[in-house]
Amino acid sequence: MTSAWVGQLVRLRAIEPEDWETFHSFDEYSDAVRNGHQLHPPQSAAQARKWAAELAERTQDLDEVRLVIATREGNTPVGMLNTHGVDRVHGTFSYGIGIGTPHHRKGYAGDAVVLLLRYMFFERRFQKAEPRVYGSNEGSLALHRRLGFVEEGRRRRCHYANGRYDDEVLFGMTIEEFTERHVS
Asked: Is 42 exposed, middle or buried (0-12, 13-18, 19+ CB in 10 A)?
């Protein structure tokens, strides 16, 4: 038996209440947090527990999902991804992905994105993924280019963090491009 949620390196799964500590520890890496969205003030362990428990209890939407990226062997959380900006009329969506700093450059993000795209394209009938990446996030820019995303544009100076403005790079990949590159 093969699960659509298991790749070569990772498995995508729902968050569990006990995952709070791992995600709470990822917040200690300010540069990585800024690359994902924005830096927040520190939160207490109690707040982190509550966040994880609430997500674990929430019913998942079929198209707007939030999933833990865990190692295939050991089921250890290494990051999270979510879909957003879902447009069912036009068949487009965006997503965000974050890998905890201790787990960078191990192939987890690429494997997780491919699993997500396979689900959104072949199970949910979407035709195009449109992620956005901050221009200073070299790792994510390289990842998306390596996966075959096309740079479609740039929003200049739309993100502020760490005392400077940053561009947002707009990427796109159609189902046909995905199929050609990632489906054998």
From this structure: exposed
